[in-house]
Amino acid sequence: MKYRYTKFTGDLLDEIDLEDLVSKLSDLLLSSGFGSAAGGPGDGDDDRSMQALHDAILEALFSGGVLSDDALQQLLGEPADGDQEAARQQLEDLIQQIIERMMEQGFVTGAPDLEGEQARRRGGDGAGDSAPPVRFEVTDKALDFLGYRALRDLLGSAGRSSAGRHDTRHLSTGVEAVAAPKPYEFGDTMNLDPSGTILNAVQRLHADGRPTTGAIEVEYGDLMVAQSEYQSSCATVIMLDCSHSMILYGEDRFTPAKRVAMALAHMIRTQYPGDSLHAVLFHDSAEEVPLKQLGRVRVGPYYTNTREGLRLARRILERQKKDMRQIVMITDGKPSALTRPDGQIYKNAFGLDPYIIAETFTEVNACQKAGIMINTFMLARDHDLVAFVRRVAAICRGKAYFTTPYTLGQYVLMDYMDRKTKTIH
Predict the structure, then answer these.
(1) What is the CB neighbour count within 10 angstroms for residue 267?
(2) Shortest CA distance to 308 belongs to which of 356, 378, 351?
(3) Which of 173, 233, 299, 372 is the most buried (most CB within 10 A)?
């Protein structure tokens, strides 16, 4: 019997870095409704269909650098061969294997077919031309991973691979010595500085004219303790503007804002364990969302109720017993809505409404009296918005940043980490 030997080329699936692929699919997985800018907050579910996932993987394979040139040639073959049907089938099989691998590793999961189940219970089979497309859902593992990758990419682009904690000008008697030792005082941590303590004892004995050939007696006044920097804790509320303007004008501003919020949450959880972070969405009204749900939120109704967002953020921060309390507000629009005492929402999107602005500044003053700093990151440069934000910064002694969706992450993370004054007294 004759055998025909061919070159072993390996499995194309093994050449794909799945985590790198998931990162390249982040715009789809963190979709904010940009694909349906004319619709409402409940529209735009087509980007959660398996077909949308299929198309995004296909784009990543050819344009995202997921596969090498040799792998692509192996996958598609030579055009002169004429067997393009087999090449297309091999490509479809590879994409299906990738989707199955993503499910096996817990990045996505199949969404329950609620409509099909309802049809089945009514006596139908749930099939037919009107059957909805097969959908998928993003898992918490995928969102946490995307937050980690966003943090790594943002810090890497800024030339910083890691971050410390919030340093202050105050010194304490901790474990890590970063300053000259000081005499021990009641209440200090007994982190004794041996050399300083013994030196004090020897100098005292010499001053008394006593010999030092024998044992050195250490007295209370000889004790020296090492000093370390006092590291403060910080409570932060990140306010995300999810009004409809965040996905209008041909630009998705909300997905980058979500990505930054997820990176900040991951950084605080892993590198600043003493800090706290809460997320508030503001649109026609405002509500707090769990951090693990940040990757799933979408743009909301049309208007911008900045006052209600600030009020909710202030109430959250007033419950936090931290050294620093701050609001990080990301917005692209001027205040255009207000919640009245009776619960009705007053709206006016034309210019700066004096009533809305006055009530919003009243809330800004309340934040200032509570010791809460407001740092605003603007994704637009509308004249009215600039004037409003500058006044907010002046009242709360905060900062106002003019940024874009592409530089937003660096501004937010660097501002958060640079709240340190590493001065040794």
Answers:
(1) 24
(2) 356
(3) 299
Residue 216 belongs to domain spanning: 170-231
Q: Are residues 243 and 133 in the same domain?
A: no
Q: 231, 266, 283: which is the final residue of a domain?
A: 231
Which residue, 231, 247, 281, sits at the end of a domain? Answer: 231
Instruction: With beta carbons less than 8 A apart as the criterion, state whether 162 and 421 touch.
Output: no
Angstrom distance (rounded) from CA 244 to CA 333: 10
Instruction: Provide the domain count of the chain.
Output: 3
Model-level pTM? Answer: 0.71
> Could you read off the pLDDT of 305-344 as tens digits, one per residue?
999 999 999 999 999 888 889 999 998 888 999 999 998 9
Classify 205 in phi/psi space as left (phi over 0), alpha (psi -120 to 50) or beta: alpha
**Which of these, 290, 281, 333, 341, lies nearest to 312 by C-alpha position?**
281
* Helix, strand or coil, per DSSP, at residue 237: strand
Whether residues 258 and 404 share a domain: the answer is: yes
Name the phi and psi angles at 333, rounded to 5. -145, 155
Please identify which residue in the block is written with the tokens 């030792």: 181
- Is residue 73 packed enough to be buried (19+ CB in 10 Å), middle (13-18) or exposed (0-12)? exposed
